[in-house]
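A protein record pairs a chain with a discrete description of its three-dimensional fold. The shape at a given residue is found from the number at the same position. Here is what such a record looks like in full:
>
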Amino acid sequence: MEHQIKREPQFWINPNFRLNSPHFRFAWFMADMTVLRQEAMIKSVERKVYQTSTQCVVCMINPDHSSLDIVYADNTKFDNLRLQKWLREIIRDEIILRVKIVLHPRLRELEQKHNLHGNRVFIKKLRGNIMGCCSVYNDISLIPGLIIMPQAMIDSVILHEMAHYKHKHHRKSFWNFLSQLLGEDARTQKEAMDIVLSKY
């Protein structure tokens, strides 16, 4: 029987890890272990607690899921794989909840503005570096990670998928229509976006 090797994450979530965007942010705060233990005992939907005999981390959740404050003690071992898994799940879940609050209404707002109407909206992970797709039934899928992008980039991805309501390809007519929706040359804008996206 082979030994199971625990895979280390590509990056560690710790107080050096920052996420601050117009729609979602999280911040780190160090507190005394006694205070943390007291906070952990307060039952609330606005907080999640990771607690062992030696460690305690409390995540304070904003009711509209726009922010997450992570409170930890100075002895917290962020290289603990269980703690990493817990933090990743909390952050992922909060981002998905925030996406539903922000992206669905924004898509409907842009549809009204441009008098284009699709069907359903799905928030899900897509293959490779694809940020959105539109089905033959005009269902749009968007990745949760869009929520950490600048608003102009979010709108650009949504408008790109909305352009597929009329053109199910990437030929010249599609790019011309997308340019009308964007109010600028779509191909030039895509090249600029690719450069900006490289940092994400």
